[in-house]
Amino acid sequence: MGGPFDDLTETVFADKTVLTESYQPETILERDEEIEAYSHALQDVLFGRTPENIFVYGKAGLGKTAVTKYMLEELREEVPTRESADNLHTHTANCNGRTLFMVVRNLVNRLLPDHASPFPERGLGTGDAFDELYRQFDRIGGTHLVVFDEIDHLEDANTLLYELPRARANGHITDAKVGVIGISNDYTFRQTLSPKVKDTLMETEISFSPYDAAELRTILDHRADHAFVDGVCDTSAIAKAAALAAQDMGNARQALDLLRVGAELAEQNGETPVTDAHIETARERVQRGRVTNKIRDQTEHAQYILEAIANLQTSGEVPARSKEIQRTYEQVADSHAASPLSTLKSIQDHLSDLHMLGFLRRHEQNKGLSGGQYYEYELDLDPALVLETRTEIAKHTE
Ligand SMILES: Nc1ncnc2c1ncn2[C@@H]1O[C@H](COP(=O)(O)OP(=O)(O)OP(=O)(O)O)[C@@H](O)[C@H]1O
After folding, report:
1. Which of 253, 256, 293 best tests ligand 1's pocket when mutated (most atoms within 8 Å of CB)?
2. Which domain holds residue 269?
3. Which of 38, 153, 307, 355 has the fewest CB atoms within 10 Å distance of its CB?
């Protein structure tokens, strides 16, 4: 009798990591203008001057993080060759799901000397964390570039972006020089910043636009060369992945996902080469994955509301009014041992956000003078997918 792996004799991948999210490309393709703008903005570092503050924006998967990492790496290599440059220290903080205190505290902990005890989680405030951060910058000296990724998720971005770039001018730092790089995929974030902050942060803005099919094709071709065993992937399959992603949002992550998942399907089915048909099938899987991630990005209570509507939908009780959704939501929150939001208004606010984000379909009901006007909601996606995702998340968090 054969073993379970007997049929799997061939692989299409020479190096699969090249197609995964964690892989940092050595070469950045099709972003020459952005790289040039970045180089200009960073050149002060090479002359020992205070770096400009940089704000990078553009939608998901357009290379903001990859280009930023690449630029910092290049800069770190260049600095030791320049006499005029101070020592360079780079730090990256992800702001998603964190408070300002957590972000600053985290930075402090990474800067503290090995033997020092970590900055306390409780008892001290954000101001204290900033003071400690400044002390550490000065203790270490040199130039510090701090990248704040997904900065639009930070509620107190104004405070951070007001404090840090001015720390030297305000006498909080004397020896070190600090530059801030903010990354955001929300264009409207800029409007939420106070005018005072805009003045400092907007020294350089670099905007990333969606890739077209030809650009995605260049990126994929290059990766495919390293990722696949020779000849196992049709060139038309690569073009297909590029074209599908370009039609959608011009997102390089999506293009890479389509190619990787398409190749996985071909491998699982023992069907080489990877063809257009594999990429087409991959599209469904990748889309499913995207929806799952979008659900994960929602706040805890927004997720309970989605779960509640999915339950109502499964038992045929949609479209539902906000009051009915609230009742089911309370049961859902209860089942996760969470205390539910108490007002109907807060549920309605969540519902309108979820509608705006494309999770819900909304129907306006007008019952004239007697019944009044109200909205009814149902999911605009498969309820089973919501429930599966929720079960998966709950497994890891409860
Ligand atoms: N120009 C490029 N050349 C090579 N690889 C690229 C390029 N642009 C993007 N990629 C790859 O595409 C994926 C997504 O890019 P990246 O994470 O930099 O996007 P992002 O704009 O930071 O998106 P998000 O806002 O979602 O974090 C990564 O795997 C990255 O390596």
Report:
1. 253
2. 211-295
3. 355
